[in-house]
Amino acid sequence: MKMNKLVYGVFMVLCFAFAKAYSQEVLEPKLSRQQAIELMLDNNYGIKIAKNTEAIAENNSGILNSGYLPSLQGTAGVSKDENDSNTDFNGALDQSGNPREDIEINDAQTTQYNAAISLNYTLFDGLGRYYNYKRLKEQYQLSQLEARSTIENTTVQLMSVYLEIARLTENLSVFEENLAISKKREERARYQFEYGQVNKLEILNAQVDINTDSINILNAQQTLRNTKRDLNLLMNRELNAVFVVDTTVVLQNTLVIDSFLEKVKENNVRLLQAESTLQISDYDIKTTRALLLPRIGLTGSYGWNQTENPPSAFFPATTRTAANVAIGANLTWDIFDGGRSINSLRNAKIAYENEALFKSQLELEVSRDVANAKGNYDNALAIYRMQEKNVMTNESNFERTKEQFNLGQVSSIEFRQAQVNLLNAVTLKNLAKYDAKLAEYQLLQLAGQILNVPL
């Protein structure tokens, strides 16, 4: 019976442990990098605003805003006029020789109806609307590039926070392992103290190290919670939503990255924006030049009028209806408008020159940024490889120190120093690993490929 109770108790403990582990898995689902990006694209406020701005530019670039369609205007109206009149014949005689009576008419209404439709169409305006239409199309392209820039910047920001969460997660595991080692050391010191092999100081030293390791865990946990809220904010979801991240880091092949860097001028979003802005300035010059040329337009109209006149002293009531059709052409040429058009053209040419200078400056800046980012990436990779070797060295040193500590050949202070050295080496390796990945993301952004490669 006692054996059955013991087995039952062990079974319940195992069930409880599995249930707890399963509940933690449900409460903290894994959030992959791709899932984080999809949530960001769907929910991030900055990206939504950029997409709405792009939609406005798309509407403006359509045929309805081009000036190529005619304008059609319709008007209609009705008016009523009510009059009271009295006609006095001043003693005039009728056919019978009697004085004629005054004629009084009250509430006599005159009603007028009118309707008209007019058409105006510009046949030629010096090609102003043609270049303005192309300008609107180019502005739409520019808005797409601006939306892409917003998405790229937000993606790098998202991945930076994501990698920080991964780093903190790995560090937390290292801190917990470190705490477990310190607890075993304290337990061993207690056994040795009971048998008189060590003094009380060994236990106190172990307890101090346990407290230090516990504080490291608490700080790491709080920083991890705060950083997860930062990521939730970028994805625009509930700030305290729980999740775990993927700590796997796969670095891109350096040959692939080098091939991307060969096409920076064709793919870098900042350079593409500068080129688009320069093209818009060119269209501004051509649109302004059109003000110096004549404009030819067509007009057409159709009108209908009806007037209902009341009876008068001498005439009966009448109704008059009329309709008219008019077609015409017009030529307008501002031969001299006080110099405003010439001045606008000069300013447009200067603005184009400024945009060309800005593009040249930006090309140099991007080249510098790419060179710096490539150098940072290569340096981060080298540091990561060195830190990996450093971890291996410290692991070997810790294992040997641990063996000597168990044999009583080294002190607890030396053992703790080896433990701290290993802890620092592992955390520095984690930092170097995620720094290298972040440097890779920044390099891919400059190459214009951050949205085209798996992250």
Description:
- This protein is of the alpha+beta class.
- The protein has two domains: about 25-70 and about 130-295 and about 340-445, Outer membrane efflux proteins (OEP) (Up-down Bundle); about 70-125 and about 295-330, no CATH class.
- It is about 65% helix and about 15% strand.
- The chain has ten helices and six strands, in the order αβααββααβαααββαα.
- The strands form two sheets. The chain has a four-stranded antiparallel sheet, with no helix packed on it. A two-stranded parallel ribbon has the order 1-4.
- A hairpin with an 8-residue loop joins strand 5 (about 295-310) and strand 6 (about 320-330).
- The chain is elongated, with a radius of gyration of 43 Å.
Attribute tags:
455 residues, alpha+beta, Outer membrane efflux proteins (OEP), 2 domains, four-stranded antiparallel sheet, two-stranded parallel sheet, 10 helices, elongated
Mean pLDDT over the full residue set: 89
Structural class: alpha+beta
Strand order across the biggest sheet? 2-3-5-6
Poorly predicted runs of 5 or more residues: 1-26
Number of discrete helical segments: 10
Main β-sheet description: 4 strands, antiparallel
Which value, in Å, is the CA radius of gyration?
A: 43 Å
Q: What's the CATH topology name of the largest domain?
A: Outer membrane efflux proteins (OEP)
**What spatial form do the alpha-carbon principal axes imply?**
elongated
The CATH superfamily name of the largest domain is Outer membrane efflux proteins (OEP)
Distance N to C terminus? 59 Å
The tally of domains stands at: 2
Q: What's the CATH class label of the largest domain?
A: Mainly Alpha
Beta strand %: 15-25%
